[in-house]
Design brief:
Two copies of one chain form a homodimer. Chain A has about 290 residues and is an alpha/beta fold. Helices cover about 25% and strands about 25% of the residues of chain A.
Chain lengths: ~290, ~290
DNA sequence: GTTCCGCATGAATCGATAG
DNA sequence: ACTATCGATTCATGCGGAA
């Protein structure tokens, strides 16, 4: 089975209209953060950010498979000494739009940007907001298991009798233990805090997005031949990881140079296809499918 | 100069009225979270939580010194498959009340609650929200600098093989790279991510609040003889740390047993004082000042 | 005195079952 | 239908007793 990559050049809000309903299994993206400077690349003023993003998230809600997941990497800036509130407002508005705010992962950036301010420390974390369409969605937890802590080596050498049978806690916390379940287990499930370094080498793109980040979520929320979408593709990290992991991918970016760069980087071969007619749009540009 | 400790038994909303305006330099507290601690504090429903807390934060705003800081430890729980939004709503409302939302620190709990669920990982972090009255506030950054040498030694000692795998650090890009930075410096400023374990030893109080947490904020935001307030004292961790660090402290709790326990623990000597008359309340109970 | 090892415990969450 | 309670799952830590 062939793995395809589609790249659209233009405004995400418009380009997304070309995608069919329920056709994407995972959306991972890091949109341009709100910025006080209005006219830089992607810099949307924080007052307008929520309205701007809601038009995009509306389309994302449409194209996402009901069992799929949307991961939004975002962090509020400091405005006049305060953390801006647009991320919180966005979450509240997206819920009204129909999204479920399932979870908030923390990306702990181990080597965050250096700097010093009189009343503030370095910002070493970002939000990874998980949104879903339904309470039931696909999650392949085993794919991202991590080695257990050291303690388990010592712990499992000798099992006492209470270890072997379930031993209920006395204080009514409803929590007991059954250590024997841990035999033959060398891995544990991770938590909702991710420890990753930021990418040091900038790839001609301002956003530093380590490959491990989309990789982790692609492993967790998709299987091979699923489709991954990044509506703010940038340098194409999400797409190249998806490609390597045998997932179909779709990228959108407003800057033609990035689109060209990503195509070149992925060694894509363009193939024109006959498109089935869909109701959601009568006239649409030809979809450009790339096959590696 | 003597260090004093005051303990008030009762509802924070009411007890706080006894404190003068602008008299506290730091508030550090961990209130009962919504729907939690039903058997000790009664458990506030998440729909009522914001209104309930606003009456308290209104008083906190009054008693806090204009150069002081309020640190609020809180985390939303899952309700019907979604993260509850009451914390975000609380932040938005507190800003309307006059608070500045200056920063959000992350407390990464290394030993978080275990468990496995089909669509969710363990929750390993909590919010430490920083609020201020003014953009200018006291912050003694040097007090919490991390000594590089010690930290390097401790880190290297604990750097087991599983640590390396878990951190997914690649030689030369992540961990190794930072080592070269450490060579030329004695101390470094911390970031806004705190790595602490919860305390699971029983102190007759269910909250796992490690001493390092209030200690860090007391160092950062106060100096000796300043006053620290915890309106949800619980087992008194904040007070005992403040006492040890030569800060005056004030604790409030609705449960008499906790108040008695804290007094006993701190070996406090009660001394009745003549109170100056204040305008904000004509009749008020005698303040109980404890001196160690 | 150290170091080692056994063990209870925790701001949790989901789904099934009971009222 | 809707709420309340219950059982099942899980892992890192610090304490205390033992070696």
């Amino acid at each position: 089975m062939e793995i395809t990559t589609e790249i659209y050049t233009g405004d995400s809000k418009e380009q997304l209209k070309q995608l069919p309903n329920n056709s994407v299994d995972l959306i991972v993206t890091s949109p341009p953060y709100a910025d006080q400077r209005k006219y830089t690349y992607g810099g949307i003023h924080h007052d307008k950010y929520v309205d701007w993003f809601l038009l995009i998230s509306e389309q994302l809600l449409r194209v996402l498979n009901p069992t799929g997941t949307f991961i939004l990497n975002i962090k509020e800036k400091v405005v006049e000494g305060e953390r801006s509130t647009y991320v919180m407002e966005l979450i509240l508005e997206m819920r009204k739009q129909g999204w479920l705010w399932t979870e908030e992962f923390i990306w702990h950036k181990k080597n965050c940007y250096p700097g010093k301010w009189p009343n503030r420390f370095r910002d070493a974390w970002e939000r990874l907001l998980q949104f879903n369409k339904n309470r039931k969605f696909h999650m392949y937890q085993e794919e991202v298991m991590v080695p257990m802590g050291e303690w388990v080596n010592a712990r499992l050498k000798n099992l006492s009798e209470t270890d072997k049978t379930r031993d209920n806690s006395k204080v009514g916390s409803g929590f007991g233990k059954n250590i024997s379940n841990w035999l033959n287990r060398d891995k544990a499930y991770p938590t909702n805090v991710l420890h990753l370094a930021t990418e040091c080498n900038n790839k001609n793109h301002s956003a530093a997005f380590p490959e491990e980040l989309p990789e982790w979520f692609i492993k967790l929320f998709t299987k091979e031949n699923d489709t991954v979408l990044d509506p703010f593709m940038g340098s194409g990290t999400t797409l190249s990881v998806a490609n390597r992991m045998k997932r179909n991918s779709i990228g959108i970016d407003i800057i033609p140079e990035y689109c060209e760069m990503v195509k070149k980087q992925l060694n894509l071969v363009e193939s024109y296809l006959f498109e089935p007619k869909e109701e959601y749009e009568t006239i649409k540009p030809k979809r450009r499918i790339f096959v590696r």
